[in-house]
Amino acid sequence: MANNHTPETSTHEMILHDRIVKRKATVGVVGLGYVGLPLIHAMHNAGFTTVGFDIDAEKIRLLKAGKPYLEHLGREMFRDLARSKRFTPTNKVKGLAKCDAIAICVPTPLGKHDEPDLSYVVNSTEMVARVLHPGMLVSLESTTYPGTTREICKPILERGGLVAGRDFFLCFSPEREDPGRKGVETRTIPRLVGGLDPASGRLGHALYSAAVERVMAVSSAEVAESAKLLENIYRAVNIALVNELKPVLADMGIDIWEVIAAAATKPFGFQPFYPGPGLGGHCIPIDPYYLTYKAREYGHVTRFIELAGLVNRRMPEYVVERLSAALNQESKSVKGSRILVVGIAYKPDVDDVRETPAAEVIRLLSERGAQVSYHDPHVPVFPSMRKYRFGLHSVRLTAAELKASDAVLIITDHAAVDYAAIGRHAPLVVDTRNAMSRVRSPSARVVKA
User: Fold this and answer.
1) Range of the domain at 20
2) Does residue 139 belong to any structural domain of this protein?
Protein backbone atom coordinates (compact mmCIF):
# COMPACT_ATOMS: atom_id res chain seq x y z
CA MET A 1 0.00 0.00 0.00
CA ALA A 2 3.04 2.31 0.38
CA ASN A 3 2.89 3.44 -3.24
CA ASN A 4 -0.53 5.02 -2.63
CA HIS A 5 0.85 7.51 -0.11
CA THR A 6 2.66 10.78 -0.74
CA PRO A 7 5.76 11.93 1.13
CA GLU A 8 3.49 14.22 3.18
CA THR A 9 1.38 11.31 4.38
CA SER A 10 1.41 11.02 8.18
CA THR A 11 1.74 7.80 10.10
CA HIS A 12 -1.82 8.25 11.41
CA GLU A 13 -3.14 8.54 7.86
CA MET A 14 -1.24 5.50 6.64
CA ILE A 15 -2.46 3.34 9.52
CA LEU A 16 -6.11 4.37 9.16
CA HIS A 17 -6.04 4.08 5.37
CA ASP A 18 -4.74 0.53 5.62
CA ARG A 19 -7.35 -0.36 8.25
CA ILE A 20 -10.08 0.97 5.96
CA VAL A 21 -8.80 -0.89 2.90
CA LYS A 22 -8.46 -4.14 4.85
CA ARG A 23 -11.90 -3.63 6.51
CA LYS A 24 -10.31 -3.71 9.95
CA ALA A 25 -11.61 -0.25 10.86
CA THR A 26 -14.56 0.17 13.21
CA VAL A 27 -17.07 2.67 11.85
CA GLY A 28 -19.49 4.53 14.10
CA VAL A 29 -22.58 6.50 13.14
CA VAL A 30 -24.16 9.12 15.39
CA GLY A 31 -27.89 9.45 14.72
CA LEU A 32 -29.80 6.37 13.57
CA GLY A 33 -32.61 7.98 11.65
CA TYR A 34 -33.45 8.37 7.96
CA VAL A 35 -29.80 9.09 7.11
CA GLY A 36 -27.71 7.33 9.73
CA LEU A 37 -29.38 3.94 9.64
CA PRO A 38 -29.00 3.33 5.88
CA LEU A 39 -25.41 4.55 6.16
CA ILE A 40 -24.44 2.16 8.93
CA HIS A 41 -26.12 -0.69 7.07
CA ALA A 42 -24.05 0.15 3.98
CA MET A 43 -20.85 0.29 6.06
CA HIS A 44 -21.78 -3.01 7.69
CA ASN A 45 -22.41 -4.61 4.29
CA ALA A 46 -18.99 -3.37 3.18
CA GLY A 47 -17.44 -5.54 5.87
CA PHE A 48 -16.74 -3.05 8.65
CA THR A 49 -17.41 -3.59 12.33
CA THR A 50 -19.99 -0.92 13.13
CA VAL A 51 -21.30 0.97 16.15
CA GLY A 52 -24.61 2.82 15.95
CA PHE A 53 -25.29 5.57 18.48
CA ASP A 54 -28.57 7.31 19.18
CA ILE A 55 -29.81 9.15 22.27
CA ASP A 56 -33.24 7.52 21.78
CA ALA A 57 -33.19 4.40 23.97
CA GLU A 58 -36.30 3.07 22.23
CA LYS A 59 -34.49 2.99 18.87
CA ILE A 60 -31.65 1.05 20.46
CA ARG A 61 -34.10 -1.44 21.96
CA LEU A 62 -35.81 -1.97 18.61
CA LEU A 63 -32.48 -2.37 16.81
CA LYS A 64 -31.34 -5.02 19.26
CA ALA A 65 -34.65 -6.82 18.76
CA GLY A 66 -34.52 -6.50 14.96
CA LYS A 67 -37.80 -4.58 14.89
CA PRO A 68 -38.24 -1.76 12.34
CA TYR A 69 -39.03 1.82 13.25
CA LEU A 70 -38.65 3.26 9.74
CA GLU A 71 -41.19 1.61 7.47
CA HIS A 72 -39.62 2.43 4.11
CA LEU A 73 -36.35 0.66 4.97
CA GLY A 74 -38.08 -2.69 5.29
CA ARG A 75 -37.77 -5.37 7.94
CA GLU A 76 -34.78 -7.17 6.45
CA MET A 77 -32.34 -4.35 7.21
CA PHE A 78 -33.27 -4.43 10.90
CA ARG A 79 -33.06 -8.21 11.04
CA ASP A 80 -29.66 -8.20 9.32
CA LEU A 81 -28.21 -5.77 11.82
CA ALA A 82 -29.75 -7.47 14.86
CA ARG A 83 -28.29 -10.85 13.85
CA SER A 84 -24.81 -9.53 13.17
CA LYS A 85 -21.86 -9.68 15.55
CA ARG A 86 -20.34 -6.74 13.66
CA PHE A 87 -23.05 -4.26 14.68
CA THR A 88 -23.48 -2.76 18.15
CA PRO A 89 -26.33 -0.32 18.82
CA THR A 90 -25.87 1.89 21.88
CA ASN A 91 -26.99 5.07 23.59
CA LYS A 92 -23.78 5.21 25.65
CA VAL A 93 -21.09 7.61 24.44
CA LYS A 94 -18.31 5.30 25.61
CA GLY A 95 -19.49 2.77 23.01
CA LEU A 96 -17.97 5.01 20.34
CA ALA A 97 -14.51 5.07 21.91
CA LYS A 98 -13.28 2.08 19.90
CA CYS A 99 -14.27 3.61 16.55
CA ASP A 100 -11.67 4.51 13.92
CA ALA A 101 -14.15 6.65 12.00
CA ILE A 102 -17.39 8.35 13.08
CA ALA A 103 -20.07 9.89 10.84
CA ILE A 104 -22.39 12.48 12.37
CA CYS A 105 -25.91 12.21 10.89
CA VAL A 106 -28.15 14.49 12.96
CA PRO A 107 -30.90 16.98 12.08
CA THR A 108 -30.25 20.60 11.17
CA PRO A 109 -33.63 22.31 11.65
CA LEU A 110 -34.57 25.98 11.68
CA GLY A 111 -35.20 28.18 14.69
CA LYS A 112 -38.24 30.38 15.26
CA HIS A 113 -36.97 33.06 12.87
CA ASP A 114 -35.73 30.73 10.13
CA GLU A 115 -32.18 30.86 11.47
CA PRO A 116 -30.05 27.69 11.44
CA ASP A 117 -30.34 25.55 14.54
CA LEU A 118 -27.01 23.76 14.82
CA SER A 119 -27.60 22.51 18.36
CA TYR A 120 -27.73 18.87 17.26
CA VAL A 121 -24.47 19.22 15.33
CA VAL A 122 -22.76 21.04 18.20
CA ASN A 123 -23.95 18.57 20.84
CA SER A 124 -22.96 15.57 18.71
CA THR A 125 -19.53 17.02 17.93
CA GLU A 126 -18.93 17.71 21.63
CA MET A 127 -19.89 14.12 22.34
CA VAL A 128 -17.49 12.80 19.70
CA ALA A 129 -14.77 15.05 21.14
CA ARG A 130 -15.04 13.09 24.38
CA VAL A 131 -13.97 9.88 22.62
CA LEU A 132 -11.69 11.44 19.98
CA HIS A 133 -8.31 9.76 19.75
CA PRO A 134 -5.26 10.12 17.50
CA GLY A 135 -5.84 8.70 14.04
CA MET A 136 -9.66 9.00 14.09
CA LEU A 137 -11.64 10.26 11.09
CA VAL A 138 -14.78 12.32 11.76
CA SER A 139 -17.27 12.99 8.96
CA LEU A 140 -20.18 15.42 9.17
CA GLU A 141 -23.15 14.50 6.95
CA SER A 142 -25.80 16.92 8.24
CA THR A 143 -26.86 19.53 5.67
CA THR A 144 -25.61 22.94 6.73
CA TYR A 145 -24.14 26.23 5.53
CA PRO A 146 -20.61 26.47 4.09
CA GLY A 147 -18.01 26.70 6.82
CA THR A 148 -19.79 24.68 9.49
CA THR A 149 -17.31 21.80 9.47
CA ARG A 150 -14.31 24.13 9.69
CA GLU A 151 -15.74 26.90 11.86
CA ILE A 152 -17.98 24.93 14.23
CA CYS A 153 -16.86 21.29 14.38
CA LYS A 154 -13.10 21.71 14.10
CA PRO A 155 -12.63 24.02 17.13
CA ILE A 156 -14.78 21.73 19.30
CA LEU A 157 -12.78 18.67 18.32
CA GLU A 158 -9.46 20.45 18.86
CA ARG A 159 -10.24 21.57 22.42
CA GLY A 160 -8.53 18.50 23.84
CA GLY A 161 -5.24 19.35 22.18
CA LEU A 162 -5.40 17.16 19.08
CA VAL A 163 -4.92 19.00 15.78
CA ALA A 164 -7.10 18.39 12.72
CA GLY A 165 -5.15 17.15 9.71
CA ARG A 166 -2.28 15.97 11.86
CA ASP A 167 -3.63 14.05 14.86
CA PHE A 168 -7.15 13.38 13.61
CA PHE A 169 -9.04 13.92 10.36
CA LEU A 170 -12.22 15.80 9.51
CA CYS A 171 -14.36 15.89 6.37
CA PHE A 172 -17.84 16.71 5.14
CA SER A 173 -19.85 14.21 3.06
CA PRO A 174 -23.45 15.34 2.52
CA GLU A 175 -26.21 12.79 2.80
CA ARG A 176 -28.33 12.23 -0.29
CA GLU A 177 -31.06 9.95 1.01
CA ASP A 178 -34.52 10.10 -0.55
CA PRO A 179 -36.86 8.00 1.63
CA GLY A 180 -39.20 5.79 -0.38
CA ARG A 181 -37.49 6.20 -3.74
CA LYS A 182 -37.40 2.88 -5.54
CA GLY A 183 -34.33 1.52 -7.28
CA VAL A 184 -31.72 3.44 -5.30
CA GLU A 185 -29.95 2.84 -2.02
CA THR A 186 -27.06 4.33 -0.08
CA ARG A 187 -24.60 2.09 -1.92
CA THR A 188 -25.71 3.29 -5.37
CA ILE A 189 -26.22 7.02 -4.70
CA PRO A 190 -23.04 8.92 -5.73
CA ARG A 191 -21.20 10.56 -2.84
CA LEU A 192 -19.31 13.82 -2.42
CA VAL A 193 -16.45 14.10 0.07
CA GLY A 194 -14.55 17.26 0.98
CA GLY A 195 -11.81 17.29 3.59
CA LEU A 196 -10.56 20.16 5.70
CA ASP A 197 -7.13 19.22 4.43
CA PRO A 198 -5.75 16.82 1.80
CA ALA A 199 -5.22 13.95 4.25
CA SER A 200 -8.78 14.21 5.57
CA GLY A 201 -10.10 14.28 2.03
CA ARG A 202 -8.13 11.18 1.08
CA LEU A 203 -9.30 9.23 4.13
CA GLY A 204 -12.91 10.32 3.67
CA HIS A 205 -12.77 9.20 0.05
CA ALA A 206 -11.31 5.84 1.08
CA LEU A 207 -13.96 5.24 3.73
CA TYR A 208 -16.98 6.06 1.58
CA SER A 209 -15.52 4.29 -1.46
CA ALA A 210 -15.55 1.09 0.57
CA ALA A 211 -19.35 1.24 0.88
CA VAL A 212 -20.54 3.40 -2.04
CA GLU A 213 -20.11 2.62 -5.73
CA ARG A 214 -19.11 6.13 -6.83
CA VAL A 215 -17.41 8.74 -4.64
CA MET A 216 -16.25 12.11 -5.92
CA ALA A 217 -13.60 14.02 -3.99
CA VAL A 218 -13.95 17.82 -4.03
CA SER A 219 -11.34 20.35 -3.01
CA SER A 220 -12.74 21.30 0.39
CA ALA A 221 -15.47 20.72 2.93
CA GLU A 222 -16.94 24.08 1.93
CA VAL A 223 -17.44 22.93 -1.67
CA ALA A 224 -19.23 19.79 -0.49
CA GLU A 225 -21.39 21.81 1.93
CA SER A 226 -22.31 24.26 -0.85
CA ALA A 227 -23.06 21.53 -3.37
CA LYS A 228 -25.65 19.95 -1.08
CA LEU A 229 -27.35 23.30 -0.58
CA LEU A 230 -27.38 23.93 -4.33
CA GLU A 231 -29.03 20.55 -4.95
CA ASN A 232 -31.92 21.37 -2.63
CA ILE A 233 -32.20 25.06 -3.54
CA TYR A 234 -32.49 24.02 -7.19
CA ARG A 235 -35.47 21.86 -6.32
CA ALA A 236 -37.07 24.45 -4.04
CA VAL A 237 -36.85 27.21 -6.66
CA ASN A 238 -38.22 25.08 -9.48
CA ILE A 239 -41.08 23.77 -7.34
CA ALA A 240 -41.85 27.38 -6.42
CA LEU A 241 -42.03 28.22 -10.12
CA VAL A 242 -44.74 25.65 -10.85
CA ASN A 243 -46.50 26.49 -7.58
CA GLU A 244 -46.63 30.13 -8.67
CA LEU A 245 -47.93 29.16 -12.11
CA LYS A 246 -50.61 26.89 -10.66
CA PRO A 247 -53.10 29.55 -9.44
CA VAL A 248 -52.42 31.75 -12.45
CA LEU A 249 -53.23 29.00 -14.93
CA ALA A 250 -56.14 27.75 -12.80
CA ASP A 251 -57.81 31.16 -13.06
CA MET A 252 -57.33 30.95 -16.83
CA GLY A 253 -59.01 27.55 -16.88
CA ILE A 254 -55.75 25.80 -17.80
CA ASP A 255 -54.60 22.56 -16.14
CA ILE A 256 -51.03 23.00 -14.83
CA TRP A 257 -50.51 19.23 -14.87
CA GLU A 258 -51.32 18.99 -18.57
CA VAL A 259 -49.06 21.97 -19.25
CA ILE A 260 -46.13 20.29 -17.46
CA ALA A 261 -46.71 17.02 -19.30
CA ALA A 262 -46.73 18.89 -22.60
CA ALA A 263 -43.54 20.81 -21.82
CA ALA A 264 -41.82 17.61 -20.69
CA THR A 265 -42.02 16.21 -24.23
CA LYS A 266 -39.06 18.46 -25.08
CA PRO A 267 -35.99 16.20 -24.86
CA PHE A 268 -33.61 18.96 -23.79
CA GLY A 269 -33.64 22.19 -21.78
CA PHE A 270 -36.57 21.23 -19.55
CA GLN A 271 -36.95 19.09 -16.44
CA PRO A 272 -40.45 18.62 -15.03
CA PHE A 273 -41.23 19.71 -11.49
CA TYR A 274 -44.69 19.35 -10.01
CA PRO A 275 -46.86 21.59 -7.82
CA GLY A 276 -48.31 20.53 -4.52
CA PRO A 277 -49.83 21.68 -1.23
CA GLY A 278 -46.46 22.90 0.05
CA LEU A 279 -43.01 21.55 0.74
CA GLY A 280 -42.22 18.80 3.23
CA GLY A 281 -39.36 16.70 4.47
CA HIS A 282 -36.20 17.72 6.23
CA CYS A 283 -34.38 19.16 3.21
CA ILE A 284 -36.17 21.36 0.70
CA PRO A 285 -38.26 23.48 3.14
CA ILE A 286 -35.24 24.09 5.39
CA ASP A 287 -31.89 23.93 3.62
CA PRO A 288 -32.22 27.08 1.45
CA TYR A 289 -32.50 29.19 4.59
CA TYR A 290 -29.09 27.95 5.73
CA LEU A 291 -27.53 29.66 2.73
CA THR A 292 -29.58 32.85 3.09
CA TYR A 293 -28.38 33.07 6.71
CA LYS A 294 -24.72 32.65 5.78
CA ALA A 295 -25.03 35.00 2.81
CA ARG A 296 -25.99 37.88 5.12
CA GLU A 297 -22.68 37.45 6.93
CA TYR A 298 -21.01 38.40 3.64
CA GLY A 299 -23.41 41.26 2.87
CA HIS A 300 -25.58 39.45 0.34
CA VAL A 301 -29.35 39.18 0.15
CA THR A 302 -30.57 36.01 -1.61
CA ARG A 303 -33.81 37.45 -2.96
CA PHE A 304 -34.48 34.65 -5.45
CA ILE A 305 -34.18 31.93 -2.82
CA GLU A 306 -36.25 33.80 -0.26
CA LEU A 307 -38.99 34.52 -2.80
CA ALA A 308 -39.17 30.81 -3.62
CA GLY A 309 -39.60 30.12 0.08
CA LEU A 310 -42.47 32.60 0.32
CA VAL A 311 -44.25 31.05 -2.68
CA ASN A 312 -43.92 27.50 -1.37
CA ARG A 313 -44.96 28.42 2.16
CA ARG A 314 -48.15 30.01 0.89
CA MET A 315 -49.38 26.82 -0.76
CA PRO A 316 -51.28 25.42 2.29
CA GLU A 317 -53.25 28.66 2.44
CA TYR A 318 -53.99 28.45 -1.28
CA VAL A 319 -55.24 24.88 -0.86
CA VAL A 320 -57.61 25.95 1.90
CA GLU A 321 -58.84 28.84 -0.26
CA ARG A 322 -59.59 26.43 -3.11
CA LEU A 323 -61.36 24.08 -0.73
CA SER A 324 -63.42 26.94 0.67
CA ALA A 325 -64.42 28.07 -2.84
CA ALA A 326 -65.38 24.52 -3.78
CA LEU A 327 -67.56 24.19 -0.67
CA ASN A 328 -69.18 27.55 -1.39
CA GLN A 329 -70.33 26.19 -4.73
CA GLU A 330 -72.09 23.46 -2.74
CA SER A 331 -73.70 26.18 -0.54
CA LYS A 332 -71.49 25.11 2.38
CA SER A 333 -68.88 26.89 4.46
CA VAL A 334 -65.65 25.53 5.87
CA LYS A 335 -67.00 26.07 9.37
CA GLY A 336 -68.86 22.96 10.45
CA SER A 337 -67.93 20.96 7.33
CA ARG A 338 -66.46 17.48 7.67
CA ILE A 339 -63.15 17.38 5.85
CA LEU A 340 -61.34 14.10 5.31
CA VAL A 341 -57.64 14.64 4.56
CA VAL A 342 -56.10 11.79 2.57
CA GLY A 343 -52.37 11.41 3.18
CA ILE A 344 -50.39 13.29 5.81
CA ALA A 345 -46.86 12.02 5.03
CA TYR A 346 -44.80 14.62 3.20
CA LYS A 347 -44.33 12.34 0.16
CA PRO A 348 -45.94 9.20 -1.26
CA ASP A 349 -45.53 5.70 0.16
CA VAL A 350 -43.53 6.57 3.30
CA ASP A 351 -44.41 7.17 6.95
CA ASP A 352 -42.32 10.36 7.15
CA VAL A 353 -44.24 13.44 8.33
CA ARG A 354 -41.29 15.79 8.87
CA GLU A 355 -42.33 19.33 7.86
CA THR A 356 -45.40 17.91 6.11
CA PRO A 357 -47.66 20.59 4.58
CA ALA A 358 -50.62 18.53 5.80
CA ALA A 359 -50.00 19.88 9.29
CA GLU A 360 -50.42 23.50 8.26
CA VAL A 361 -53.45 22.67 6.11
CA ILE A 362 -55.13 20.91 9.04
CA ARG A 363 -54.29 23.81 11.34
CA LEU A 364 -55.83 26.33 8.95
CA LEU A 365 -58.96 24.21 8.50
CA SER A 366 -59.35 23.69 12.24
CA GLU A 367 -59.00 27.44 12.86
CA ARG A 368 -61.84 28.00 10.40
CA GLY A 369 -64.09 25.60 12.30
CA ALA A 370 -63.88 22.52 10.10
CA GLN A 371 -64.20 19.02 11.56
CA VAL A 372 -61.01 17.42 10.29
CA SER A 373 -60.12 13.72 10.15
CA TYR A 374 -57.48 11.97 8.12
CA HIS A 375 -56.62 8.70 6.44
CA ASP A 376 -53.05 7.59 5.84
CA PRO A 377 -52.16 3.89 5.42
CA HIS A 378 -48.59 4.60 6.53
CA VAL A 379 -49.19 6.90 9.52
CA PRO A 380 -51.71 5.47 12.02
CA VAL A 381 -51.22 8.31 14.52
CA PHE A 382 -50.46 11.94 13.71
CA PRO A 383 -47.35 12.51 15.87
CA SER A 384 -46.72 15.64 17.87
CA MET A 385 -44.55 18.04 15.90
CA ARG A 386 -42.53 21.15 16.64
CA LYS A 387 -45.47 23.49 15.99
CA TYR A 388 -48.43 21.12 15.75
CA ARG A 389 -50.30 18.79 18.10
CA PHE A 390 -53.59 17.42 16.81
CA GLY A 391 -54.21 14.15 18.65
CA LEU A 392 -55.62 12.58 15.49
CA HIS A 393 -55.68 8.93 14.43
CA SER A 394 -56.08 7.61 10.91
CA VAL A 395 -59.63 6.57 10.05
CA ARG A 396 -60.56 3.77 7.69
CA LEU A 397 -61.32 4.78 4.12
CA THR A 398 -64.79 3.25 3.96
CA ALA A 399 -67.73 4.12 1.77
CA ALA A 400 -69.59 5.39 4.84
CA GLU A 401 -66.67 7.63 5.86
CA LEU A 402 -66.40 9.06 2.36
CA LYS A 403 -70.12 9.70 2.01
CA ALA A 404 -70.25 11.38 5.41
CA SER A 405 -67.54 13.86 4.43
CA ASP A 406 -68.40 17.19 2.89
CA ALA A 407 -65.07 17.13 1.09
CA VAL A 408 -62.09 14.83 0.66
CA LEU A 409 -58.81 16.69 0.45
CA ILE A 410 -55.92 14.75 -1.13
CA ILE A 411 -52.59 15.95 0.26
CA THR A 412 -50.37 12.91 -0.37
CA ASP A 413 -50.94 10.49 -3.24
CA HIS A 414 -50.02 7.16 -1.63
CA ALA A 415 -50.22 4.19 -4.02
CA ALA A 416 -52.12 2.17 -1.39
CA VAL A 417 -55.10 4.56 -1.41
CA ASP A 418 -58.21 3.47 -3.33
CA TYR A 419 -58.85 6.55 -5.46
CA ALA A 420 -61.60 4.82 -7.39
CA ALA A 421 -63.54 4.40 -4.14
CA ILE A 422 -63.01 8.08 -3.37
CA GLY A 423 -64.35 8.93 -6.79
CA ARG A 424 -67.43 6.73 -6.27
CA HIS A 425 -68.44 7.73 -2.76
CA ALA A 426 -67.15 11.22 -1.95
CA PRO A 427 -69.36 14.15 -2.92
CA LEU A 428 -66.44 16.54 -3.45
CA VAL A 429 -62.70 15.90 -3.91
CA VAL A 430 -60.09 18.63 -3.74
CA ASP A 431 -56.95 17.18 -5.29
CA THR A 432 -53.51 18.76 -4.73
CA ARG A 433 -51.55 15.93 -6.42
CA ASN A 434 -53.50 15.14 -9.61
CA ALA A 435 -54.22 11.74 -8.07
CA MET A 436 -57.78 11.60 -9.37
CA SER A 437 -56.56 11.75 -12.97
CA ARG A 438 -56.09 7.98 -12.72
CA VAL A 439 -59.82 7.48 -12.02
CA ARG A 440 -62.15 7.20 -15.01
CA SER A 441 -65.39 9.15 -14.80
CA PRO A 442 -65.59 9.68 -11.00
CA SER A 443 -69.02 10.47 -9.56
CA ALA A 444 -67.47 13.02 -7.23
CA ARG A 445 -66.91 16.59 -8.29
CA VAL A 446 -63.14 16.97 -8.54
CA VAL A 447 -61.41 20.31 -8.02
CA LYS A 448 -57.67 20.66 -8.42
CA ALA A 449 -55.78 22.79 -5.94
Assistant:
1) 2-219
2) yes
Q: What angle do CA 165, 168, 171 make, to 5 degrees?
A: 65
Q: Active-site residues: which are they?
A: 283
277 domain residue, yes or no: yes
Sheet of 49-53, strands arranged across: 87-90, 49-53, 26-30, 101-104, 137-140, 169-172, 191-195, 215-218
pTM: 0.92
**In angstroms, how far is the first alpha carbon of the chain from the final one?**
61
Among 202, 219, 236, the domain-final residue is 219
Burial 324-353 (b: 16+ CB within 10 A, else e): bebbeeeebebeebebbbbbbbbbbbbbbb
Strand ranges (E), 31-110: 49-53, 87-90, 101-104
Q: Rg (Cα) of the chain, in Å, rounded?
A: 24
Whether residues 289 and 185 fall in one domain: no
Ramachandran angles phi, psi of 47, nearest 5°: 110, 0
Give the list of residues 6+ apart from residue 247 with CB closer than 8 angstroms, or none: 318
List the chain pLDDT tens, one digit each, 449 residues: 334 454 456 899 999 999 999 999 999 999 999 999 999 999 999 999 999 999 999 999 999 999 999 988 889 999 999 999 999 999 999 999 999 999 999 999 998 888 999 999 999 999 999 999 999 999 999 999 999 999 999 999 999 999 999 999 999 999 998 887 888 899 999 999 999 999 999 999 999 999 999 999 999 999 999 999 999 999 999 999 999 999 999 999 999 999 999 999 999 999 999 999 999 988 889 999 999 999 999 999 999 999 999 999 999 999 999 999 999 999 999 999 999 999 999 999 999 999 999 999 999 999 999 999 999 999 999 998 878 989 999 999 999 999 999 999 999 999 999 999 999 999 999 999 999 999 999 999 999 99
Instruction: Calculate the CA dihedral of residues 117, 122, 123, 128 and round it to 10 degrees.
Output: 150
- Tallying the residues shown for the chain, one arrives at 449
The Cα–Cα gap between 76 and 67 comes to 9
